[in-house]
Amino acid sequence: MTIGLIDSGIGGLSILRALEKELPQNQYVYLADSANFPYSEKSPQDLQKAAAEHVRELIYKHNCEITVLACNTLSVVALAYLRSQFPAVPFVGTVPPVKAASEELEPGNTILVIATKRTAESSYLAELIYPYKEKQNFIVVGTTDLVIAIEAEDNVQINNVLNSINNDLQNNNVDSIVLGCTHFPLITRKIQEVFKKEVKIYSPTTGVVKQVKRLTQEGNENYSSRLLDKTNRTKFIKTTIGNQITKYIAVNTITYPI
After folding, report:
1. Is 256 a domain residue?
2. pLDDT tens digits, residue range 194-219?
3. Theoretical Cys-Cys bridge with 98: which of 78, 85, 128, 141, CB 3.0 to 4.6 Å?
4. Among candidate residues 188, 203, 218, the one where a domain is terminated
5. Domain that residue 238 falls in
6. pTM
């Protein structure tokens, strides 16, 4: 089965890495829409239009049977629209794992949600938090600067942004961190270093893998568990020349230096 992924840059590679590990029998097409990076600064209308164009390319040119929006911002803004425009296409959105964190932790814990500004300010995130806001204490931080720093592999700026977030928390002791952007799992180790505590970090990759696994296996008697040759498993598409993702591609193999 061929699965397409869309993100504005390298963030969705965290999703791709998890899918390749858990579902190596699939083929993947990763579309890095760096022409529109960062998504959080684009209007909803522009994102919906761009996403629809990318979905058409994945479906008609690359024969993708499932499309993963490997970006929280794109999922918030465009998922419902895409489902209305392509009703026969199975879509998987990326959701901040608020539910998983809230239900796993004891009541009264403090959960820090780090997301892009668009996701942090969205009614969608507020609705995810609402059922648990009486049980847990939530702190929501929206940052586009961290996304830009990760995309540029600017380790100094990554540390500056994380330290700024940590300092702004003052005396709020964070028990867990929910990552609301697919760029953020790429710097999990740095996040833990900055917060200097055994905080549990919840990544959005887990939920995406679970949903893709369900879609590929449900009602598909011909689904194959045969492992594919790693060098032939993934294709990459870029919407501009010379964007950062080229640093991560060598004979269709991805490395994660951050």
Report:
1. no
2. 987 788 999 999 999 999 999 998 75
3. 128
4. 203
5. 2-94+206-248
6. 0.87
